[in-house]
């Protein structure tokens, strides 16, 4: 691995440039990114379908005819809550891939899975327990099906809002756990643990990270609508089904959301690099380390 | 594929017909979005104001005002971008606020036809559109754009060109003046002192010179601890190479090597140049080189 030979030109960038560059990264690595997102996303998508699939109990066309659009939007909104909360966990394999691809080292799927599974305990601890994914799953599983959802909705949306705030302020858990590989606990107080590293990296850039998260969330929302709108158009044009059926909503809506999750995972990784460049001069460190390794090699 | 091995970046090099090379940062879909939203807001505000004015005038001139509103709406919707880009040298008000500009792919200003055509073709980039039938409206009235064609086109092209840009041979670039950077200043006098202890015959390679320049340019943004941490990587092998005491500050060592590479040599050149200019009989070209191709350290007198 040559530390100054990166696939991406390493320099400070704005959030909009990073989002643009994300498209380039996805274009170049679309196959491994799709595979790694499928690895993380499919199990979670199945869990989501089991948890809230029952909410599509009204024919969309009937609801449109009755003017009962609020009921129709229940499923998309709850699905969005779940996907937002689960995206970092689903993107673990993709993050591992991107972490290596940036140094022009492409890992096979097996190596990626192996590398992620080495860190399975901190990963599960920080996402499923620490950030409360398990709580959300229990909440959705506990709701009696076909019941009045008002109290449950307040809880679910409230939790999602809190989660989003936490994630906006500390977005790079995956990168710290999977790529930096700090230990969870240490007997020596000088050792950098995951929690210390989280505070050190995110602490000074809180407001900046929040603004970046807001911009990314807004654009991800637009992108998701754009993708799902295109799917509606295509089914209308080819199947003459202009009004989406429950089956279509159940399949294509999560698909659009997980596709955007892949984009969000890529842009989050690039934001992580950018934060390290701005705060720690990461690109300078890489260059000096590469130069040091050249100096260490004896002249033949 | 050669193109696939290139580093990912948003910059492109354009060589003009006069054989002058420029480097531009091209603006992608997300960089363009705020400009688009500003222009959309201006258009909406203008139409809203016009609508209010015509609503009052309807009492006087009747249905004629509706026709005027429709015509103005059509003209603004189709020609707002083209007109401004033609008159403001590739910029609309939104693009000016966001610091982006439309140029031809060979780096020249666009003409009126290109400005109009790339904006008229925006309709293609807006597809696929969602029908109103999806929301219980009349069938086959497509009003909600997804802009997916434009997004895919921009993702697939190296200059982030949408269909309108591809048809007209244009691109949108960022006007960013902070790309140029000069020689960084070193504030610590000990660096100059340490520079005199460095071996005079040590040749700094091009990559090492770049790394030093990068470090000195950025070090003022790092904390003292972080400076130590970063400088240690290169400082350790350099200390061993130069045979300097192991407790020498790595940060100071890199600064002094930077000083030797970029500043002391340059100062010597400038002194020579000043002397040459003062003497009307001294042929400058023969006495010394005015520009170095690469930074290197020469033995001191």
Strand order in the sheet with the most strands of chain B = 1-2-6-3
Please give the largest β-sheet of chain B.
4 strands, antiparallel
Evaluate the radius of gyration of chain B: 30 Å
Tell me the number of strands of chain A: 0
Q: Spans of chain B of 5+ residues with little confidence (pLDDT < 50)?
A: 282-301
Helix content of chain B: 55-70%
Give the overall shape of chain A.
globular
Largest interface: A-B, 48 and 52 residues
Instruction: Please tell me the overall pLDDT of chain A.
Output: 85
Q: Alpha-carbon distance between the termini of chain A?
A: 21 Å
Arithmetic mean pLDDT of chain B? 80
Count of domain modules of chain B: 2
- As for the number of domains of chain A, it is 1
Relative helix content of chain A: over 70%
What would you note in describing this structure?
The complex is a heterodimer of chains A (300) and B (301). In chain A, 76% of the residues lie in helices and 0% in strands. Chain A has helices at residues 15-28, 30-52, 60-66, 69-90, 92-101, 109-118, 120-130, 133-142, 150-169, 173-180, 194-203, 206-239, 246-280, 282-296. Chain A is globular, with a radius of gyration of 21 Å. Chain B has 301 residues and is of the alpha+beta class. Chain B folds into two domains: 2-178, no CATH class; 189-287, no CATH class. In chain B, 55% of the residues lie in helices and 9% in strands. Chain B contains 13 helices and six strands. In chain B, the strands form two sheets. A four-stranded antiparallel β-sheet of chain B has the order 1-2-6-3. A two-stranded antiparallel sheet of chain B has the order 4-5. In chain B, helix 3 (64-87) packs across helix 5 (112-120). The relative contact order of chain B is 0.09. Mean pLDDT of chain B is 80; it is low at 282-301. Chains A and B meet through helix 1, helix 12 and helix 14 of A and helix 2, strand 4, helix 7, helix 10 and helix 11 of B.
């Amino acid at each position: 691995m040559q530390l100054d030979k990166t696939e991406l030109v390493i320099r400070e960038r704005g959030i909009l440039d990073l989002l643009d560059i994300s498209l380039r990264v996805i274009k170049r690595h679309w196959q491994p990114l799709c595979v790694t997102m499928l690895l993380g996303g499919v199990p979670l998508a199945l869990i989501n379908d089991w948890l809230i699939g029952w909410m599509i109990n009204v024919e969309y066309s009937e609801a449109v005819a009755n003017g009962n659009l609020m009921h129709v939007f229940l499923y998309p909104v709850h699905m969005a809550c779940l996907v937002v909360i689960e995206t970092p966990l689903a993107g673990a394999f993709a993050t591992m891939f991107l972490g290596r691809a940036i140094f022009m080292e492409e890992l096979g799927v097996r190596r990626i899975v192996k590398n992620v599974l080495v860190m399975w305990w901190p990963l599960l601890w920080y996402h499923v327990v620490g950030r409360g994914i398990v709580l959300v799953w229990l909440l959705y599983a506990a709701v009696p099906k076909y019941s009045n959802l008002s109290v449950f909705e307040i809880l679910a949306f409230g939790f999602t809002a809190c989660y989003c705030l936490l994630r906006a302020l500390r977005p790079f858990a995956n990168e710290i756990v999977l790529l930096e590989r700090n230990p969870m606990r240490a007997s020596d107080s000088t050792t950098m643990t995951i929690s210390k590293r989280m505070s050190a990296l995110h602490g000074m850039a809180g407001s900046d990270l929040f603004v970046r998260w807001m911009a990314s969330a807004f654009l991800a929302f637009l992108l998701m609508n754009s993708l799902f709108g295109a799917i509606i158009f295509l089914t209308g044009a080819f199947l003459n089904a202009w009004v989406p059926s429950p089956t279509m909503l159940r399949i294509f809506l999560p698909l659009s959301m997980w596709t955007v999750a892949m984009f969000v995972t890529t842009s989050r990784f690039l934001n992580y690099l950018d934060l390290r460049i701005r705060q720690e001069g990461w690109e300078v460190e890489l260059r000096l380390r590469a130069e040091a390794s050249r100096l260490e090699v004896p002249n033949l | 594929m050669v193109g696939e091995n290139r580093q990912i970046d948003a910059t492109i090099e354009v060589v003009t017909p006069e054989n002058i090379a420029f480097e531009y940062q091209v603006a992608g879909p997300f960089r363009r979005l705020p400009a688009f939203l500003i222009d959309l807001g201006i258009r909406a505000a203008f139409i809203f104001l016009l609508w209010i004015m015509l609503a009052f005038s309807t009492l006087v001139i009747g249905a004629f005002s509706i026709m005027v509103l429709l015509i103005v709406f059509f003209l603004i919707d189709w020609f707002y971008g083209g007109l401004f880009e033609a008159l403001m040298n590739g910029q609309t008000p939104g693009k000016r606020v966001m610091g982006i500009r439309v140029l031809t792919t060979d780096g020249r200003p666009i003409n009126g036809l290109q400005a109009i055509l790339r904006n008229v073709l925006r309709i293609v980039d807006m597809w696929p559109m969602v029908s109103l039938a999806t929301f219980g409206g009349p069938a086959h009235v497509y009003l909600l754009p997804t802009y997916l064609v434009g997004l895919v086109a921009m993702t697939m092209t190296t200059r982030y060109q949408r269909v309108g840009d591809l048809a007209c041979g244009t691109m949108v670039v960022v006007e960013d003046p902070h790309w140029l950077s000069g020689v960084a200043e070193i504030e610590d006098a000990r660096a100059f002192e340490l520079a005199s202890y460095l071996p005079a015959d040590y040749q700094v390679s091009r990559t090492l010179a770049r790394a030093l320049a990068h470090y000195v340019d950025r070090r003022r943004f790092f904390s003292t601890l972080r400076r130590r941490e970063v400088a240690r990587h290169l400082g350790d092998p350099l200390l061993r190479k130069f045979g300097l005491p192991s407790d020498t500050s790595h940060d100071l060592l890199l600064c002094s090597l930077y000083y030797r590479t970029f500043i002391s040599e340059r100062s010597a050149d400038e002194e020579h140049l000043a002397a040459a200019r003062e003497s009307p009989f001294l042929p400058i070209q023969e006495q010394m080189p005015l520009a170095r191709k690469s930074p290197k350290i020469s033995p001191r007198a």
